[in-house]
Specification:
Elements lengths: L1 E6 L3 H16 L3 E3 L7 E6 L4 H15 L4 E6 H5 L1 H5 L4 E4 L8 H6 L17 E7 L10 H5 L3 E2 L2 H11 L5 E6 L15 H11 L4 E4 L9 H7 L7 E3 L7 H7 L5 H14 L4 E8 L6 H13 L4 E6 L17 H24 L5 E9 L4 E6 L4 E5 L8 E10 L2 E7 L3
Parallel strand pairs: 1-2, 1-3, 3-4, 4-5, 6-8, 8-9, 10-11, 11-12, 15-17
Antiparallel strand pairs: 6-7, 13-14, 13-16, 14-15, 16-17
Length: 413
């Protein structure tokens, strides 16, 4: 049977889809693209914004046009189950907490415990170690869709990483609320313990952490990030640079705390890439609150930002908040922040010239030029002798063309 797996949204969704692909292949399926005439399409949806909802619906309809059966899972179908079930194209809706059993449903497989993961087209492997969230940010619907925080046992994570080392040189450790890893395990463990164990018991060349909250990055974790195998890159959501808005968002820090902690990270990890998320046009965001956000980003050691217009999600506290910012103003503020983000990223890229960076090869051109991602999360290209996809090579950065670093290969010291 030919199966197409279509994924929207976060790195957790990507990790779940990778696991499903491996299980399907282990049971004799051929995982194909949507244009590969699939017999079955599994769509892992997202609902973080209204745009994500729209994209999920469109993907369901695109899949149906292939004539295949369509199974829908993920946050959009979790929050809109009745509407998704009513779509004539959909054969089955699978709840988020049953997603990992889709292969069992199809094949009546009793256990995938000893599954050997196989190679897929991506250059890095996403490892989901945690799901759900116990926070209650006023704008976020994901705790409703994903449930309370729960974590995988450390030995399961280690086994998964060891099973894919022959195929991948980078793993991304991901979760809905990654910083809460281990809180649900008895006896309680932590992300720091997990990362230390990965460093001790696996040989994967690069380890990348996905999104973490600013108050979850302590000195012990920063010491581990200094290890050569850990990518010098953190994604730390800010959401707003104004204390009033942060309070309305129910975020667990103020601007002073965020700034102090960020400066501490940069002092201990000079040159680290720090990305962030910003929501523009949150209810009550007047010009002064927006200017506070813009100024904070301007001054902060942030290397890139992802900007989202506020999207009211039914069932959240912010859904009822007023006054709403009109769509035109939200769009205008998003573009101002994105322009600022592009400048911040370019400034960070300029600071890489002359430095030696590790480059994961993700694409090889016919002329031998290799393109990939550096440990500090920048796109780079270099001409490498006898290149192989997914290899990690070291390059000295000589310049920038458009949005890409230009490097020359060197031997690692």
């Amino acid at each position: 049977m030919k199966v197409s797996l279509l994924t929207l949204g976060c790195k957790v969704n990507q990790a779940e889809s990778s696991q499903m692909a491996a299980e399907l292949e282990a049971n004799g399926c051929n995982v194909v693209d949507l244009d590969g005439d699939p017999d079955l399409c599994i769509i892992n949806t997202c609902s973080v914004t209204s745009k994500s909802d729209y994209q999920s619906r469109q993907l369901i309809r695109r899949a149906a046009k292939t004539g295949s059966k369509v199974i829908v899972t993920g946050c959009y179908s979790e929050l809109n189950e009745e509407a998704v079930r009513s779509m004539s194209e959909v054969a089955m809706v699978v709840a988020n907490n049953k997603k990992e059993f889709i292969t069992n449903m199809l094949y009546n497989v009793t256990s995938c415990k000893d599954l050997k993961l196989t190679q897929d087209a991506r250059s890095r492997h996403f490892v989901k170690v945690q799901d759900g969230c116990d926070n209650a940010c006023s704008y976020c619907v994901i705790p409703i869709a994903r449930g309370s925080s729960r974590s995988r046992e450390i030995n399961e994570v280690i086994d998964q990483i060891n099973s894919i080392e022959e195929f991948y040189n980078e793993v991304v450790i991901t979760g809905i609320h990654l910083g809460s890893y281990g809180y649900s395990i008895i006896p309680k463990v932590s992300l720091t313990i997990l990362l230390r164990t990965i460093l001790l018991k696996t040989n994967v060349k690069r380890i990348r952490l996905s999104s973490l909250e600013i108050n979850e990055i302590d000195d012990e974790l920063m010491e581990l990030i200094q290890e050569e195998r850990v990518c010098k890159h953190l994604h730390i959501p800010l959401q707003s640079g104004d204390n009033k808005i942060l309070g309305m968002m129910c975020r667990r820090y103020n601007i002073s705390q965020f700034k102090d902690n960020m400066l501490s990270i940069v002092r201990k990890l000079p040159g680290i890439s720090i990305g962030s998320d910003i929501i523009a046009g949150f209810p009550g965001e007047c010009e002064i609150e927006f200017e506070n956000t813009k100024q904070f980003i301007e001054d902060a050691p942030i290397s890139y930002i992802h900007v989202f217009p506020f999207s009211p999600r039914r069932g959240t506290k912010a859904y009822e908040m007023t006054p709403r910012v009109n769509d035109y103003v939200k769009k205008e503020r998003c573009e101002i922040l994105r322009s600022l983000g592009r400048r911040k990223k370019h400034e960070y890229m300029n600071r890489q010239v002359g430095k030696i960076l590790d480059l994961l090869i993700e694409e090889i051109k016919k002329d031998g030029t290799c393109i990939g991602t550096t440990g500090n999360y920048l796109r780079a290209r270099a001409c490498v002798e006898k290149p192989r996809l997914k290899d990690v090579v070291y390059v000295r950065i000589a310049g920038i063309i458009d949005d890409t670093l230009i490097g020359h290969p060197i031997e690692p010291s």
